[in-house]
Specification:
The structure is a single chain. This protein is an alpha/beta fold. The protein folds into 3 domains: 85 residues, no CATH class; 212 residues, Endonuclease, Chain A; 165 residues, Endonuclease Chain A (Endonuclease, Chain A, 2-Layer Sandwich), CATH 3.30.870.10. It is built from 21 helices and 17 strands. It has an 8-stranded mixed sheet with strand order 9-16-15-14-10-11-12-17, with helices on both faces. A 7-stranded mixed sheet has the order 1-8-6-5-2-3-4, with helices on both faces. Strands 7-13 form a two-stranded parallel sheet. Helix 15 links the parallel strand 10 and strand 11. Helix 4 runs antiparallel to helix 5 and helix 7 runs antiparallel to helix 8. It is globular, with a radius of gyration of 23 Å.
Protein backbone atom coordinates (compact mmCIF):
# COMPACT_ATOMS: atom_id res chain seq x y z
CA UNK A 1 0.00 0.00 0.00
CA UNK A 2 2.86 2.36 0.84
CA UNK A 3 4.51 1.71 -2.55
CA UNK A 4 1.24 2.37 -4.35
CA UNK A 5 0.72 5.64 -2.47
CA UNK A 6 4.28 6.69 -3.25
CA UNK A 7 3.74 6.00 -6.94
CA UNK A 8 0.39 7.83 -7.07
CA UNK A 9 1.92 10.92 -5.48
CA UNK A 10 5.17 10.75 -7.43
CA UNK A 11 6.34 13.02 -10.23
CA UNK A 12 6.09 10.32 -12.90
CA UNK A 13 2.42 9.55 -12.23
CA UNK A 14 1.45 13.20 -11.90
CA UNK A 15 3.26 14.05 -15.14
CA UNK A 16 1.56 11.19 -16.98
CA UNK A 17 -1.85 12.29 -15.70
CA UNK A 18 -1.23 15.87 -16.87
CA UNK A 19 -0.09 14.63 -20.27
CA UNK A 20 -3.23 12.48 -20.61
CA UNK A 21 -5.39 15.45 -19.60
CA UNK A 22 -3.75 17.54 -22.32
CA UNK A 23 -4.45 14.77 -24.81
CA UNK A 24 -8.08 14.61 -23.64
CA UNK A 25 -8.42 18.37 -24.05
CA UNK A 26 -6.95 18.11 -27.55
CA UNK A 27 -9.42 15.40 -28.52
CA UNK A 28 -12.28 17.37 -26.96
CA UNK A 29 -11.31 20.50 -28.90
CA UNK A 30 -11.58 18.59 -32.14
CA UNK A 31 -14.52 16.49 -30.95
CA UNK A 32 -16.97 18.75 -32.72
CA UNK A 33 -15.45 17.57 -36.00
CA UNK A 34 -17.48 14.36 -35.83
CA UNK A 35 -20.65 16.35 -36.48
CA UNK A 36 -19.33 18.86 -38.97
CA UNK A 37 -18.72 17.79 -42.55
CA UNK A 38 -16.24 20.59 -43.18
CA UNK A 39 -14.02 19.68 -40.23
CA UNK A 40 -14.25 15.98 -40.99
CA UNK A 41 -12.96 16.73 -44.46
CA UNK A 42 -10.28 19.14 -43.21
CA UNK A 43 -8.86 16.82 -40.56
CA UNK A 44 -9.08 13.79 -42.84
CA UNK A 45 -7.15 15.77 -45.46
CA UNK A 46 -4.54 16.60 -42.83
CA UNK A 47 -4.19 12.89 -42.08
CA UNK A 48 -3.73 12.17 -45.78
CA UNK A 49 -1.03 14.85 -46.00
CA UNK A 50 0.74 13.48 -42.92
CA UNK A 51 0.50 9.98 -44.39
CA UNK A 52 2.25 11.24 -47.53
CA UNK A 53 4.88 12.90 -45.33
CA UNK A 54 5.50 9.60 -43.53
CA UNK A 55 5.72 7.65 -46.79
CA UNK A 56 8.20 10.06 -48.39
CA UNK A 57 10.44 10.56 -45.35
CA UNK A 58 13.52 8.43 -44.84
CA UNK A 59 12.06 6.32 -42.04
CA UNK A 60 12.13 2.68 -41.05
CA UNK A 61 9.39 0.72 -42.90
CA UNK A 62 7.98 -0.70 -39.66
CA UNK A 63 7.62 2.83 -38.27
CA UNK A 64 5.78 3.86 -41.43
CA UNK A 65 3.43 0.86 -41.22
CA UNK A 66 2.60 1.68 -37.60
CA UNK A 67 1.55 5.21 -38.49
CA UNK A 68 -0.35 4.03 -41.55
CA UNK A 69 -2.44 1.84 -39.28
CA UNK A 70 -3.18 4.83 -37.05
CA UNK A 71 -4.21 6.91 -40.06
CA UNK A 72 -6.53 4.09 -41.17
CA UNK A 73 -8.09 3.40 -37.77
CA UNK A 74 -8.59 7.02 -36.69
CA UNK A 75 -8.43 9.10 -39.89
CA UNK A 76 -9.86 12.21 -38.25
CA UNK A 77 -7.28 12.44 -35.47
CA UNK A 78 -4.35 10.62 -37.08
CA UNK A 79 -2.79 13.73 -38.58
CA UNK A 80 -3.05 15.67 -35.33
CA UNK A 81 -1.48 12.80 -33.39
CA UNK A 82 1.41 12.59 -35.83
CA UNK A 83 2.13 16.31 -35.56
CA UNK A 84 2.42 16.06 -31.77
CA UNK A 85 3.90 12.58 -31.33
CA UNK A 86 5.36 11.39 -34.62
CA UNK A 87 7.48 14.27 -35.87
CA UNK A 88 10.94 13.51 -34.53
CA UNK A 89 12.73 16.39 -36.18
CA UNK A 90 14.59 18.61 -33.77
CA UNK A 91 13.02 21.95 -32.93
CA UNK A 92 14.93 25.20 -33.40
CA UNK A 93 16.27 25.34 -29.84
CA UNK A 94 17.70 21.82 -30.02
CA UNK A 95 19.16 22.45 -33.48
CA UNK A 96 20.92 25.59 -32.23
CA UNK A 97 22.29 23.77 -29.21
CA UNK A 98 23.47 20.91 -31.40
CA UNK A 99 25.18 23.35 -33.76
CA UNK A 100 26.88 25.02 -30.80
CA UNK A 101 27.91 21.62 -29.47
CA UNK A 102 29.42 20.61 -32.82
CA UNK A 103 31.49 23.79 -32.75
CA UNK A 104 32.69 23.00 -29.22
CA UNK A 105 33.43 19.43 -30.24
CA UNK A 106 35.52 20.48 -33.24
CA UNK A 107 37.43 22.97 -31.10
CA UNK A 108 38.04 20.31 -28.47
CA UNK A 109 39.19 17.68 -30.94
CA UNK A 110 41.70 20.12 -32.36
CA UNK A 111 43.35 20.17 -28.93
CA UNK A 112 44.12 16.44 -28.84
CA UNK A 113 45.86 14.03 -31.22
CA UNK A 114 44.01 11.17 -32.89
CA UNK A 115 45.47 7.69 -33.43
CA UNK A 116 48.35 7.55 -35.90
CA UNK A 117 46.53 5.02 -38.08
CA UNK A 118 48.62 2.06 -37.01
CA UNK A 119 45.75 0.24 -35.21
CA UNK A 120 43.59 0.40 -38.36
CA UNK A 121 46.48 -0.82 -40.53
CA UNK A 122 47.17 -3.68 -38.14
CA UNK A 123 43.48 -4.66 -38.05
CA UNK A 124 43.45 -4.58 -41.87
CA UNK A 125 46.23 -7.17 -41.83
CA UNK A 126 44.42 -9.25 -39.20
CA UNK A 127 41.03 -9.26 -40.97
CA UNK A 128 40.02 -6.85 -43.78
CA UNK A 129 36.30 -7.34 -43.10
CA UNK A 130 36.68 -6.34 -39.46
CA UNK A 131 38.74 -3.33 -40.55
CA UNK A 132 35.82 -2.34 -42.78
CA UNK A 133 33.49 -2.41 -39.80
CA UNK A 134 35.94 -0.38 -37.70
CA UNK A 135 36.21 2.16 -40.51
CA UNK A 136 32.41 2.45 -40.67
CA UNK A 137 32.23 3.21 -36.94
CA UNK A 138 34.98 5.80 -37.27
CA UNK A 139 33.43 7.47 -40.32
CA UNK A 140 29.88 7.69 -38.95
CA UNK A 141 30.38 8.30 -35.24
CA UNK A 142 33.90 9.76 -35.05
CA UNK A 143 35.11 7.18 -32.50
CA UNK A 144 38.53 5.79 -33.43
CA UNK A 145 40.02 2.33 -33.20
CA UNK A 146 42.67 1.81 -30.52
CA UNK A 147 45.32 -0.63 -29.35
CA UNK A 148 47.46 -0.23 -26.18
CA UNK A 149 44.43 -1.14 -24.07
CA UNK A 150 43.96 -3.78 -21.39
CA UNK A 151 40.50 -5.32 -21.07
CA UNK A 152 38.63 -7.19 -18.37
CA UNK A 153 35.21 -8.81 -18.69
CA UNK A 154 32.68 -9.12 -15.87
CA UNK A 155 30.10 -11.90 -16.24
CA UNK A 156 27.97 -10.61 -13.35
CA UNK A 157 26.94 -7.21 -12.06
CA UNK A 158 28.04 -8.08 -8.54
CA UNK A 159 31.59 -8.72 -9.77
CA UNK A 160 31.55 -5.44 -11.66
CA UNK A 161 30.48 -3.27 -8.73
CA UNK A 162 33.18 -4.67 -6.43
CA UNK A 163 35.85 -3.77 -9.00
CA UNK A 164 34.31 -0.33 -9.53
CA UNK A 165 34.45 0.42 -5.81
CA UNK A 166 38.16 -0.45 -5.70
CA UNK A 167 39.01 1.69 -8.73
CA UNK A 168 36.98 4.66 -7.45
CA UNK A 169 39.13 4.68 -4.32
CA UNK A 170 42.21 5.20 -6.52
CA UNK A 171 40.86 8.30 -8.32
CA UNK A 172 43.25 11.27 -8.24
CA UNK A 173 41.82 13.85 -10.64
CA UNK A 174 38.29 13.26 -11.96
CA UNK A 175 35.42 10.79 -12.09
CA UNK A 176 32.82 10.88 -14.87
CA UNK A 177 29.63 8.85 -14.44
CA UNK A 178 26.75 8.51 -16.90
CA UNK A 179 23.96 6.01 -16.24
CA UNK A 180 20.39 5.43 -17.31
CA UNK A 181 19.45 4.49 -13.75
CA UNK A 182 20.83 5.27 -10.35
CA UNK A 183 18.78 3.83 -7.53
CA UNK A 184 19.08 4.65 -3.86
CA UNK A 185 20.06 1.47 -2.07
CA UNK A 186 23.00 -0.62 -0.94
CA UNK A 187 24.97 -0.35 -4.19
CA UNK A 188 24.50 3.38 -4.73
CA UNK A 189 25.18 4.15 -1.06
CA UNK A 190 28.52 2.35 -1.30
CA UNK A 191 29.43 4.29 -4.46
CA UNK A 192 28.28 7.63 -3.04
CA UNK A 193 30.33 7.18 0.13
CA UNK A 194 33.51 6.85 -1.93
CA UNK A 195 32.55 9.76 -4.19
CA UNK A 196 32.16 12.02 -1.16
CA UNK A 197 35.59 10.97 0.11
CA UNK A 198 37.11 11.74 -3.28
CA UNK A 199 35.44 15.17 -3.41
CA UNK A 200 37.01 16.00 -0.06
CA UNK A 201 40.37 15.06 -1.59
CA UNK A 202 39.81 17.50 -4.47
CA UNK A 203 38.65 15.03 -7.12
CA UNK A 204 36.09 16.43 -9.58
CA UNK A 205 32.95 14.24 -9.78
CA UNK A 206 30.51 14.72 -12.65
CA UNK A 207 27.36 12.58 -12.61
CA UNK A 208 24.72 12.41 -15.35
CA UNK A 209 21.65 10.20 -15.04
CA UNK A 210 18.51 9.92 -17.10
CA UNK A 211 15.62 11.71 -15.43
CA UNK A 212 12.91 9.28 -16.54
CA UNK A 213 15.10 6.19 -16.13
CA UNK A 214 15.84 7.04 -12.50
CA UNK A 215 12.58 8.71 -11.52
CA UNK A 216 11.16 5.74 -9.58
CA UNK A 217 14.43 4.91 -7.83
CA UNK A 218 15.50 8.22 -6.31
CA UNK A 219 13.78 10.89 -4.17
CA UNK A 220 12.28 13.95 -5.88
CA UNK A 221 14.85 16.59 -6.91
CA UNK A 222 17.66 14.27 -5.91
CA UNK A 223 20.08 16.13 -8.15
CA UNK A 224 19.78 19.12 -5.80
CA UNK A 225 20.73 16.95 -2.84
CA UNK A 226 23.76 15.60 -4.69
CA UNK A 227 24.88 19.07 -5.72
CA UNK A 228 24.71 20.19 -2.12
CA UNK A 229 27.15 17.36 -1.34
CA UNK A 230 29.67 18.64 -3.88
CA UNK A 231 28.87 16.56 -6.98
CA UNK A 232 28.32 18.21 -10.35
CA UNK A 233 25.05 16.70 -11.57
CA UNK A 234 22.91 16.70 -14.71
CA UNK A 235 19.48 15.04 -14.85
CA UNK A 236 19.29 14.34 -18.57
CA UNK A 237 16.23 15.50 -20.56
CA UNK A 238 14.02 16.25 -17.53
CA UNK A 239 10.45 14.99 -17.64
CA UNK A 240 8.04 17.81 -18.42
CA UNK A 241 4.28 17.61 -17.94
CA UNK A 242 3.49 18.21 -21.59
CA UNK A 243 3.56 15.79 -24.49
CA UNK A 244 6.18 15.92 -27.20
CA UNK A 245 8.24 13.33 -29.04
CA UNK A 246 11.52 14.47 -27.43
CA UNK A 247 10.49 12.82 -24.18
CA UNK A 248 11.19 9.51 -25.93
CA UNK A 249 14.89 10.30 -26.36
CA UNK A 250 16.52 8.96 -23.23
CA UNK A 251 20.16 8.61 -22.18
CA UNK A 252 20.47 4.83 -22.00
CA UNK A 253 24.28 4.87 -21.84
CA UNK A 254 26.39 3.45 -19.03
CA UNK A 255 29.80 5.09 -18.86
CA UNK A 256 32.24 5.41 -15.97
CA UNK A 257 35.66 7.01 -16.45
CA UNK A 258 38.32 7.46 -13.78
CA UNK A 259 41.24 9.83 -14.41
CA UNK A 260 41.02 9.14 -18.15
CA UNK A 261 42.91 5.85 -17.73
CA UNK A 262 40.19 3.48 -16.53
CA UNK A 263 36.76 3.14 -18.10
CA UNK A 264 33.73 0.88 -17.71
CA UNK A 265 30.63 0.20 -19.76
CA UNK A 266 28.08 -2.54 -20.28
CA UNK A 267 24.51 -3.25 -19.30
CA UNK A 268 24.84 -2.56 -15.59
CA UNK A 269 23.19 0.42 -13.91
CA UNK A 270 23.93 1.51 -10.34
CA UNK A 271 21.00 -0.06 -8.53
CA UNK A 272 20.62 -3.05 -6.25
CA UNK A 273 18.89 -5.44 -8.67
CA UNK A 274 21.83 -5.26 -11.09
CA UNK A 275 24.09 -6.77 -8.44
CA UNK A 276 21.41 -9.18 -7.17
CA UNK A 277 21.19 -7.32 -3.88
CA UNK A 278 17.46 -7.08 -4.56
CA UNK A 279 15.61 -9.88 -6.34
CA UNK A 280 12.95 -8.66 -8.75
CA UNK A 281 12.79 -11.13 -11.66
CA UNK A 282 14.74 -14.14 -10.51
CA UNK A 283 18.50 -14.05 -11.01
CA UNK A 284 19.60 -10.86 -12.79
CA UNK A 285 22.28 -11.69 -15.35
CA UNK A 286 24.22 -8.68 -16.57
CA UNK A 287 27.68 -8.03 -17.96
CA UNK A 288 30.22 -5.21 -18.21
CA UNK A 289 33.74 -4.55 -19.39
CA UNK A 290 36.67 -2.58 -18.00
CA UNK A 291 39.17 -0.78 -20.22
CA UNK A 292 42.57 0.57 -19.19
CA UNK A 293 44.57 2.60 -21.67
CA UNK A 294 44.14 4.50 -24.92
CA UNK A 295 40.60 3.29 -25.78
CA UNK A 296 39.24 4.91 -22.60
CA UNK A 297 39.50 8.19 -24.49
CA UNK A 298 36.44 7.27 -26.57
CA UNK A 299 34.37 6.78 -23.40
CA UNK A 300 35.64 10.09 -22.02
CA UNK A 301 34.81 11.83 -25.27
CA UNK A 302 31.25 10.53 -25.48
CA UNK A 303 30.63 11.56 -21.86
CA UNK A 304 31.96 15.07 -22.49
CA UNK A 305 29.85 15.34 -25.65
CA UNK A 306 26.56 14.72 -23.90
CA UNK A 307 27.56 16.64 -20.77
CA UNK A 308 28.43 19.67 -22.92
CA UNK A 309 25.18 19.31 -24.84
CA UNK A 310 23.16 19.19 -21.60
CA UNK A 311 25.04 21.72 -19.46
CA UNK A 312 26.73 23.91 -22.13
CA UNK A 313 29.95 23.70 -20.15
CA UNK A 314 33.11 24.26 -22.19
CA UNK A 315 36.15 22.03 -21.77
CA UNK A 316 39.81 21.89 -22.57
CA UNK A 317 39.57 18.35 -23.88
CA UNK A 318 43.28 17.67 -23.60
CA UNK A 319 43.21 17.65 -19.79
CA UNK A 320 41.18 14.42 -19.80
CA UNK A 321 43.39 12.34 -22.09
CA UNK A 322 44.81 8.98 -20.90
CA UNK A 323 48.22 9.35 -19.31
CA UNK A 324 49.24 5.71 -18.76
CA UNK A 325 50.15 3.15 -21.44
CA UNK A 326 48.95 -0.42 -21.10
CA UNK A 327 49.63 -3.69 -22.86
CA UNK A 328 47.72 -4.27 -26.09
CA UNK A 329 44.92 -6.86 -26.01
CA UNK A 330 43.63 -6.91 -29.57
CA UNK A 331 41.86 -3.87 -30.98
CA UNK A 332 39.25 -1.92 -29.04
CA UNK A 333 36.71 0.60 -30.35
CA UNK A 334 34.21 2.15 -27.92
CA UNK A 335 31.51 4.03 -29.81
CA UNK A 336 28.38 6.04 -29.17
CA UNK A 337 25.05 6.33 -30.98
CA UNK A 338 22.46 9.08 -30.71
CA UNK A 339 19.04 10.03 -32.14
CA UNK A 340 20.15 13.51 -33.20
CA UNK A 341 21.62 12.34 -36.50
CA UNK A 342 20.43 10.04 -39.28
CA UNK A 343 22.92 7.27 -38.51
CA UNK A 344 21.74 4.03 -36.86
CA UNK A 345 25.26 3.17 -35.76
CA UNK A 346 24.28 0.63 -33.09
CA UNK A 347 21.96 -1.41 -35.31
CA UNK A 348 24.35 -1.24 -38.26
CA UNK A 349 27.22 -2.48 -36.10
CA UNK A 350 25.08 -5.49 -35.20
CA UNK A 351 24.04 -6.02 -38.84
CA UNK A 352 27.63 -6.01 -40.02
CA UNK A 353 28.60 -8.71 -37.54
CA UNK A 354 25.66 -10.84 -38.67
CA UNK A 355 26.43 -10.32 -42.35
CA UNK A 356 30.16 -11.09 -41.92
CA UNK A 357 29.65 -14.24 -39.82
CA UNK A 358 30.93 -17.46 -41.37
CA UNK A 359 30.40 -19.96 -38.56
CA UNK A 360 28.34 -18.53 -35.71
CA UNK A 361 26.88 -15.41 -34.18
CA UNK A 362 25.56 -15.58 -30.61
CA UNK A 363 23.46 -12.81 -29.11
CA UNK A 364 22.09 -11.86 -25.70
CA UNK A 365 19.38 -9.22 -25.40
CA UNK A 366 16.63 -8.54 -22.85
CA UNK A 367 14.21 -7.44 -25.59
CA UNK A 368 13.70 -8.66 -29.14
CA UNK A 369 11.62 -6.13 -31.09
CA UNK A 370 13.07 -6.14 -34.58
CA UNK A 371 12.69 -4.19 -37.80
CA UNK A 372 12.67 -5.77 -41.24
CA UNK A 373 16.40 -5.22 -41.83
CA UNK A 374 17.40 -7.09 -38.69
CA UNK A 375 14.95 -9.96 -39.27
CA UNK A 376 16.18 -10.37 -42.83
CA UNK A 377 19.84 -10.41 -41.77
CA UNK A 378 19.24 -13.01 -39.04
CA UNK A 379 17.25 -15.25 -41.38
CA UNK A 380 19.78 -14.95 -44.19
CA UNK A 381 22.65 -15.88 -41.88
CA UNK A 382 20.79 -18.93 -40.55
CA UNK A 383 19.76 -20.01 -44.05
CA UNK A 384 23.42 -19.76 -45.11
CA UNK A 385 24.54 -22.26 -42.50
CA UNK A 386 25.67 -19.81 -39.82
CA UNK A 387 24.66 -20.82 -36.29
CA UNK A 388 22.50 -17.94 -35.12
CA UNK A 389 21.67 -18.19 -31.43
CA UNK A 390 19.71 -15.59 -29.45
CA UNK A 391 19.31 -15.64 -25.65
CA UNK A 392 16.48 -13.67 -24.04
CA UNK A 393 14.95 -13.67 -20.51
CA UNK A 394 12.55 -16.36 -19.31
CA UNK A 395 11.27 -14.14 -16.49
CA UNK A 396 10.40 -10.74 -18.04
CA UNK A 397 10.55 -7.32 -16.42
CA UNK A 398 7.74 -5.97 -18.65
CA UNK A 399 4.93 -8.33 -19.71
CA UNK A 400 4.00 -6.30 -22.79
CA UNK A 401 7.58 -6.20 -24.10
CA UNK A 402 7.88 -9.93 -23.42
CA UNK A 403 4.72 -10.52 -25.48
CA UNK A 404 6.25 -8.70 -28.46
CA UNK A 405 9.59 -10.46 -27.97
CA UNK A 406 7.93 -13.86 -28.17
CA UNK A 407 5.86 -12.83 -31.17
CA UNK A 408 9.14 -12.09 -32.97
CA UNK A 409 10.28 -15.67 -32.34
CA UNK A 410 7.99 -17.24 -34.93
CA UNK A 411 9.54 -16.05 -38.19
CA UNK A 412 13.07 -16.51 -36.85
CA UNK A 413 12.53 -20.07 -35.61
CA UNK A 414 10.93 -21.11 -38.89
CA UNK A 415 14.15 -20.17 -40.73
CA UNK A 416 16.60 -21.94 -38.41
CA UNK A 417 17.49 -19.27 -35.86
CA UNK A 418 17.93 -20.84 -32.41
CA UNK A 419 16.30 -19.07 -29.49
CA UNK A 420 16.88 -19.73 -25.79
CA UNK A 421 15.36 -18.17 -22.68
CA UNK A 422 17.50 -17.71 -19.57
CA UNK A 423 15.66 -19.98 -17.13
CA UNK A 424 17.06 -18.62 -13.82
CA UNK A 425 15.57 -15.20 -14.40
CA UNK A 426 16.19 -11.98 -16.33
CA UNK A 427 19.17 -11.56 -18.66
CA UNK A 428 19.85 -7.86 -19.18
CA UNK A 429 23.20 -8.07 -20.99
CA UNK A 430 23.47 -6.82 -24.57
CA UNK A 431 26.22 -8.72 -26.39
CA UNK A 432 27.23 -10.14 -29.76
CA UNK A 433 30.06 -12.59 -30.38
CA UNK A 434 31.02 -14.14 -33.71
CA UNK A 435 33.58 -16.52 -35.21
CA UNK A 436 36.03 -16.20 -32.28
CA UNK A 437 37.12 -12.85 -33.75
CA UNK A 438 34.71 -10.06 -32.82
CA UNK A 439 32.38 -9.12 -29.98
CA UNK A 440 30.25 -6.18 -28.88
CA UNK A 441 29.43 -5.36 -25.26
CA UNK A 442 27.32 -2.35 -24.47
CA UNK A 443 23.92 -0.83 -23.77
CA UNK A 444 22.16 -1.43 -27.11
CA UNK A 445 19.06 -3.59 -26.84
CA UNK A 446 17.68 -5.23 -29.98
CA UNK A 447 14.60 -3.04 -30.08
CA UNK A 448 13.31 0.13 -31.70
CA UNK A 449 14.01 2.37 -28.73
CA UNK A 450 17.71 1.51 -28.62
CA UNK A 451 18.11 1.58 -32.40
CA UNK A 452 16.20 4.81 -33.09
CA UNK A 453 15.36 6.83 -29.97
CA UNK A 454 17.99 6.52 -27.26
CA UNK A 455 21.54 7.68 -26.67
CA UNK A 456 23.47 4.39 -26.56
CA UNK A 457 27.02 3.10 -26.49
CA UNK A 458 29.01 -0.07 -26.98
CA UNK A 459 32.52 -1.43 -27.36
CA UNK A 460 33.73 -3.47 -30.31
CA UNK A 461 36.51 -5.95 -29.60
CA UNK A 462 38.50 -7.35 -32.53
CA UNK A 463 40.90 -10.23 -31.89
CA UNK A 464 40.81 -9.56 -28.16
CA UNK A 465 40.82 -12.01 -25.26
CA UNK A 466 37.36 -10.64 -24.41
CA UNK A 467 35.94 -12.41 -27.47
CA UNK A 468 36.87 -15.82 -26.07
CA UNK A 469 35.69 -14.90 -22.57
CA UNK A 470 32.31 -13.71 -23.83
CA UNK A 471 31.80 -16.93 -25.78
CA UNK A 472 32.68 -19.04 -22.74
CA UNK A 473 30.23 -17.07 -20.62
CA UNK A 474 27.46 -17.55 -23.20
CA UNK A 475 28.16 -21.28 -23.26
CA UNK A 476 27.53 -21.38 -19.52
CA UNK A 477 24.34 -19.36 -19.95
CA UNK A 478 23.09 -21.78 -22.61
CA UNK A 479 23.54 -24.69 -20.19
CA UNK A 480 20.91 -23.21 -17.86
CA UNK A 481 18.61 -21.87 -20.56
CA UNK A 482 15.52 -23.38 -22.16
CA UNK A 483 15.47 -23.77 -25.93
CA UNK A 484 12.28 -22.40 -27.43
CA UNK A 485 10.52 -24.25 -30.24
CA UNK A 486 7.50 -23.51 -32.42
CA UNK A 487 5.67 -26.33 -30.66
CA UNK A 488 6.28 -24.66 -27.31
CA UNK A 489 5.01 -21.32 -28.59
CA UNK A 490 1.89 -22.83 -30.13
CA UNK A 491 0.82 -24.21 -26.76
CA UNK A 492 0.41 -20.71 -25.35
CA UNK A 493 -3.02 -19.32 -24.62
CA UNK A 494 -4.68 -17.63 -27.59
CA UNK A 495 -5.00 -14.28 -25.79
CA UNK A 496 -1.23 -14.18 -25.26
CA UNK A 497 -0.61 -14.77 -28.96
CA UNK A 498 -3.11 -12.09 -29.93
CA UNK A 499 -1.64 -9.57 -27.47
CA UNK A 500 1.84 -10.14 -28.87
CA UNK A 501 0.71 -9.65 -32.45
CA UNK A 502 -1.20 -6.43 -31.74
CA UNK A 503 1.57 -4.97 -29.60
CA UNK A 504 4.13 -5.85 -32.24
CA UNK A 505 2.27 -3.73 -34.80
CA UNK A 506 2.26 -0.77 -32.42
CA UNK A 507 5.85 -1.20 -31.16
CA UNK A 508 7.58 1.07 -33.73
CA UNK A 509 5.46 4.11 -32.84
CA UNK A 510 5.39 3.72 -29.05
Amino acid sequence: MRKLLKFLTGRLFISLVLILLQLAVLINIFGFAKNDAFWIQALSTLSIIMALVVVTRDLNPAYKIGWMLIFMIIPIYGGILYIFFGNRKMNGVIRDRLKDFNTLYEEGMAQVPLPDGLPMQALESYDPLLARQAQYIDNTSGFSLWSNTEVQYFALGEEWILDVLEELKKAKSFIFMEFFIIGVGEVWNAVLAILLEKINEGVVVKLMFDDVGSILDIPPHYERTLRSLGLEVVAFNPLRAHFNSRLNSRDHRKVLVIDGNVGYTGGVNIADEYANRKIKYGHWKDTAVKLKGDAVWNLTLMFLQLWSFSSRERFDFSQFRPTVKYKTDGFVQPFGDNPLDNQNVGENAYLQIINMAKHYVWITTPYLILDNEMVTALKLAAQSGVEVCIITPHIPDKWYVFAVTRDNYYSLLSEGVKIFEYSPGFIHSKMFVSDDKVAIIGTINMDYRSFYLHFENGVLFYGSSVVKTVKEDMEQVLEVSQQITLEYLNKRMIYKKLAGTLLRLAAPVL
